[in-house]
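Hey all, sorry for the wall of text incoming. These are the two entities for the joint prediction.
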Amino acid sequence: MDRQTDNILSNNKFNMKILKYIFSRDHKIIAKQFLITAMFMGFIGLFISVLFRLQLAYPNRPFYIFKLFFNKFANDGYLDPSFYLSLVTIHGTIMIFFVLTGGLSGTFSNLLIPLQIGARDMASPFLNMLSYWLFLLSSLTMLYSFFVITGPASAGWTIYPPLSALPKAINGSGTGQTVWLISMSIFIISSLIGNINYITTIMNMRTQGLTMYRLPIIIWALLLTAILGLLSFPVLMAAVILLILDRGFGTSFYLSDIFLAGEYLHYDGGSPILFQHLFWFLGHPEVYIVILPALGISSEILSINCRKPLFGYHTMIYSLIAIAGLSFFVWAHHMFISGINPLIGSVFTITTLIIAVPSAIKVFNYIATIWRGNIKFTTPMLFTIGLISFFITGGLTGIYLGNAILDINLNDTYFVVAHFHIVMGSAAIFGMFAGIYHWYPKLFQKMMNEKLGHIHFWITYISIYLIFFPMHFMGINGMPRRYYDFNAFGMFNIFINMNKFITIISIISGFAQLIFLYNFTYSMFKGKDSSKNPWKANTLEWTTPIEHIHGNWENDLPVVYRWPYEYSNPKYQDDYMPQNISDKH
Amino acid sequence: MKIIFACLTYFFSNFLFSQELGQYIDENNQNSIIEYIFYNRYIILILVISILLYRIITTSINIFKLNMILINQPLKKIDWQYYTGYFMILFLLSGIFLSLYQFKFYGLDLWYSSATLHGQYYDFLFLIVTLLVLIVFFITHILLFYFIHKYKKNHNRKASYITHSNKLEIYWTSITSLILLLTVIYGNVIWNKIVINNPNKKDNNSIIIELTGEQFKWTARYAGYDGVLGNRSFRNIHDKNILGIDFNDKYALDDIVTNEIVLPVNKSIKMLISSKDVIHSAYIPEFRLQMNAVPGMYTSFTFTPIITTNEMRLKKNDENFDYILFCNKICGASHFNMWIRVTVLTENNYNNWIDRQTTFYQTINSI
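and here's what came out:
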């Protein structure tokens, strides 16, 4: 440990400010870098979503804003249909991989793992730095695809071949898809490097007295997230490599019997369903990679703001482990009607609904934590309440989609869009907001404005329900997703007004995010100074000095005497008892 | 603050009205700056009104504050903790109202309008699951928001130190598992009925129809009098022989190729689904039918329509109603416009229709 500490401290030779940010191996700086990159990508993803919502609400009208941004792809302000699909694809990719995977687990793993387990830095600060720079590189590569002639990838974020493999099938499957695949490969490498580092750090560098059953839930969640990522991302890498071979080197892993654009292609003997299996073997753990850190953050914040121990700490850990383990056995529920053997459908119905049990246990434990607490409505607490509400709503619609028979009519409709935007998108992004508001004092030594935070919460929370709740009804009536225009046949006329309503609400909620951006940047410079332990929390990150120092603690590392949720214990005078204070004093 | 507010209003109104702006430009076929500004009078109006409103609100708050100071009453700080609790309850109540209103608005009748035999099983399961889900949805949300409201911060009270209760955990785990188990068992029974052990699969009375997707249309092929589809290969595809049918196969000679699907009512139909290029998905919401079309293999779906198009038109009170099979898997630029009309006729009408069709072999050779 000593040698490592020396190593970190000797890195302090770069005193120039900019160089400090470029070459820093300090986990706190890397966390900031992850956060700000993810926020940048998040705002781009949000902006894209508003653009295609405009197209959906007013399909036959030109928009100046399309012409302004995508001149070539929006002739006279009319959005090009294949470019619409590009927007959908890039929105999905950015939000899932760059914001909710890289941003959420990247930011909070880097910030919280060393601080909460009492380590001076990550196990390998250099790998940590490398992980961030690869993440940035892959983000920029993804954005670069907007500048290639044929436009960005447009086969959906799931990039099912043959559509994604054949440039003749859709414009975006040319250079744009190549850029997508390169970017994703870099992202996977970045994520693997990061995950190995997180696991090693948690397993080896916990401070004295911090056993596994004294870890805060968020560390458990981040550990399981890292394990999930480590085991599932390589499978996507394999899928991506095989797809690259099919696209450029004439193999036929995924392609067979194709007649396209007036000629038959040489591919023979492959199966597009193979790709779906490989993709969803990552794809399903991926949604848990997204949601587990958010659930961890919410457990932490809930306990702190209710001033009450987290209900069923051990059950929470076991249900996290169960979710993580089972998530590898449910992937085919995305493929019930893709042409797989129907018998697989019934097996995966069972496993899918088994995974609903630990998720339900978590919700009940959350509600039991709130019961007889003493709730302080801080902004992070509000976002946590929102998260729980979304997790219930979105989880319940999962019961429909997990059932093979009900999935027949709901697959790929707006019901699915509503389901995953609520349970994975909104819940996870609310976890991220909660985390940012909560650990902002730790990141920037300042507090964020509470009043603006409340306004941000209420607008976002209400508008998310207004946007996504009606989509369930659209889906039940068969409205398909990824449609450029719903007027090609008159089946969905009853939803014309609802589409406009959703678009207007999404514009409002989009602008509400500017409140957050304003609050974030303003507080960074002119916010109220934070105290050492502003939320009166127990965990170790609030025992470090307010100003960031390399190695986190000035003198010795803290020693842990108890579990992290000792709130309102009648034994003690205060309603909290930090982990590092011994009973004897 | 004021500037930000003004900017927000400007952008927002720009967004809202820009489509009308586009229309305006379109109609007049001119887009000079003067007309743009002329049109923008709404935006300017909204801008002015919102600045005025902002002034009025801030001024009145200031007057109120000054008044309070004048009459020597100390200003009470608003207790947001207290009000947030009530906001939560308000949100809960309006949420319950709105979600129930949506059920009323979009109609439960849509969920009973399935036009196939297996669709009725589907609808029954859907109803059961919906009831279960709604009960859980409302109970958990009411508990959540009620607790949040009830246990909001109170300085005189300390939170209870409750760490865990294994009894409770066992209760809610087993109840959840039991409920989910019921839906799984019932769901799998129906799934088997429809897809795996479909009784119609073995009997040869099913009418076989082959549906082929390509960018961006569907083509149907009927087996003809012999009831057997002829062989085909994608290597045989050329200008006329759009499906690549192999006419050396004697079963292929009486095959019929159409651009619409016509089905007899109350007859079991086995639809073989395939694709020429990328993955498509054949989807008819009223039939509760969806199956992907994958190049290189056949997928199938067996179903029995029970309501003819004419009956459905009467039921829906819509003269122009048609069943439509559309593509539901992203497949290219015109994905949104890839559909085929499905007409369900009475058996006599269907037989008349099929007798009128010429075989594909004749069609090709007559051109």
